[in-house]
Amino acid sequence: MQRYSDEIIDEVRQTNDIVDIISQYVHLKRSGRNFFGLCPFHNEKSPSFSVSPDRQIFHCFGCGVGGNVFTFLTKIEGINFIEAVQMLAERSNIQLPTLDNKADTAKELLKSKVYKVNEYAANYYHENLYKPESKIAQEYIKKRKLTNETLKSFKIGFSGKFDELYKELKKQGFEEKEILESGLVNRNERGQYIDRYRNRLMFPICDVRGKVIAFGGRVLDDSKPKYINSPENVVYSKGRQLFRAKRCKKR
Ligand SMILES: [Zn+2]
After folding, report:
1. Which sign does the torsion angle of CA 61, 63, 65, 69 carry?
2. If phi over 0 gives left and psi between -120 and 50 gives alpha, with beta otherwise, what is residue 42?
3. How far apart are the CA of 33 and the centre of ligand 1, in A?
4. Could you tell me the distance, in angstroms and rounded to a whole number, from the CA of residue 215 to the centre of ligand 1?
């Protein structure tokens, strides 16, 4: 695999303070020169996870894990080193040279399409919520006293019937491959495409960059399961992201 130059990696590291980055996942408290918090990599009740702003490294005295900002991201996001560099470069607006590894490029392309599918779906569900045919959802919202501000800021939505989203995505020019990869639509044995979420209140789930990576869908009556979540895919890995994935909040 090709890699980025040491210079650019250094630049990305220097423009992303480790305390800022880790604070997005761990509640840190200053103590002397360092910061401490509960380790996100093992279970503990008292903080043995430390971050050094001077040295730009982290270390856990409980489980021994440690490293720099890239190490932290690869572990917590379940991504590889290159992806961690890309994630931070994007955060600090550093333009990276393109790496031309075919397999990587194809995966990256699929990823970026899935992000687009998710983004589109989040807006689609949200707008759907305000339509007259979504009365059942509007009543539920009233009952739960969710304000319009909350609905807007978390982009809460309502999923439609049978294959409404699928048809809409197709109309937008998305292809089967990326639609299926998003997990928002399934294909049955008869080759029919069916939306995964139907008649559910929809909660988009975002990563730290504010990109929609998954959805949670809640029923409005007593049917089971009460909640369903997106399956794992190229942009969403449950085990790693579960404790930090949050509802999308407009920033
Ligand atoms: Zn630990």
Report:
1. negative
2. beta
3. 20
4. 29
With a cut of 60, say whether residue 240 has pLDDT above it. no
Give start-end residues of each CATH 3.90.980.10 domain in the chain: 102-247
100 — pLDDT class (breaks 50, 70, 90) = low
Average pLDDT of span 114-134: 96
67-78: pLDDT as tens digits: 999 999 999 998
How much is the pLDDT for 1?
Answer: 47
Q: Which residues contact 156 (CB under 8 A, 6 or more apart)?
A: 126, 129, 141, 146, 150, 201, 202, 203
Q: How far is the CA of 39 from the centre of ligand 1 (A)?
A: 5
Q: CATH number of the domain at 102-247, please?
A: 3.90.980.10
Cα(66) to centroid(ligand 1), Å: 9
CATH numeric code, 6-91 = 3.90.580.10
Q: Where does CATH 3.90.580.10 sit in the chain?
A: 6-91
